[in-house]
Amino acid sequence: MSIDDLEQEISDAVTHYWAKLSDQEEAQKKSENTARGRRAEVVGGEQMDGLAGLIEDALVDAGLPRDAVLHDHDAVLPGYYRATKRWDIAVVVDDELLAVMELKSIASSFGNNLNNRIEEAVGNNTDLYQAYQEGLFEPSPTPWVGYLILMADTEKSRGSVRIREPNFEVDDEFKDASYIDRTEQLCLRMVRQRLVDQAAFLTSPKDGGIEGKYNEVNPELTFSRYLSSLVAHIQSHMDYEQPDIQDYESDSAE
């Protein structure tokens, strides 16, 4: 991973996110002016495009062809329980699926939105792995799966959430937990249950976010760790030389 100033790049992407939400054109232009590579084209569209472009740049810096990084409508893949799913990012090289990613955010209505994000993440990744097991991505290796989420740091997202327990007690980790705490648990548990290879969780305050302020609440869920894991996976595939089958058959015959 050769992004020179990763913290500044993340900060620019966070500025872009809040600028898109608030339509602050001046802040958005400032973010775009610091963009690298294709990010000059990517940012200015969707709220998470700054982070999507940063991920793409890291992969290109690692030697991946830029056109191998697919976004949105180009990142449609077959599913098992449904016909297709449009991912936020898919990496396809020589007709092999190497990585898939979802980039999500929550800035309001934390309860409903977080529940929706949880159901989507668990369902999407379960569907993807089943599709892989059924051979729908042949001859692809097991794809690297990533999940990134940015949550607004507000009084509501930081406050303890009241829980109703009319029948059974909930998991202790969720008692007195905030929406930020719950999101942290989502990311950690998806990593530890192998639903994703790596997750990243960023928070950003509404007032300072437009200036690029952000926080990483858990050292296991940092953006740098996310990128390092992804780049290492891609590079291991690129460095691997497929053996010549004919030569192998000849050697076996001898």
TrEMBL record:
GO biological process assignments: DNA restriction-modification system
GO molecular function per UniProt: DNA binding; type II site-specific deoxyribonuclease activity
Keywords, alphabetical: Endonuclease, Hydrolase, Nuclease
InterPro entries: Restrct_endonuc_II_XhoI (IPR007636)
Domain of life of the native organism: Archaea
Name listed for the protein in its UniProt record: Restriction endonuclease XhoI
